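Let us work through a complete example step by step.
Step 1: write down the sequence.
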Amino acid sequence: MSAVSLVALMGGTTVATAQESDPAPKSCDGVRLTGELPAPAPGQAVSGQITIGPDCEPELGSVRRGPASDRPARTAATATTRATTAAATTAGHQLRGWNEMYDCCNIRMTGLYTASSWDTADGRVTTAGTTATQEWNREPWDAGWSLTSQTAKDDCATDCAEVNSEAHADFAYQGVFDPTGDWYDNTHHSYVQLTADGTASCRFDVELRHTFVGWNWRYGCE
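Step 2: predict the structure and record it as tokens.
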């Protein structure tokens, strides 16, 4: 199993964020957070978390491993089941990923979820596909977060040496914490590599226009 890396980046260097006094107290500069995880064995999960600390610097938590949990329905449903051929030596590999931002009150603000399924035979990925879904938090008075754009693609779907899938989602905020809609923006990126030997890897990024002390990014795959 490959090593796990957790990196907080801004412009290609380690983040050094600064406290913002306007327009919102405890608001911090923009940041990009990156996490890479080896896909766990079937029935297992691996996840990580990064929290924006009191000094506005990202605090990296430990990587957690354990049995796969019964995650909420908002994590993408298993990709569409496909019939396998009689020649398939291994079939039905599945992988789910999550990429979420939570606020300091443990409310999920925005999230990008993926579900991958692939079949293999004779050292090739015979068929593969990844679906992506997005979720975001709304405030009771028809305000809050909203999805502004989303894309997803696979670089190969049949008879592949390997499959590289990516999904992206951009969310904007306009509500009680910023009525202008110009301050907060979360962009999530998820990347999955599916291989012919049945293994996989997950990589996640989130770009935040501004952050808030106590925000935490949670990501993982199972």
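Step 3: interpret the result. The chain is about 0% helix and 60% strand.
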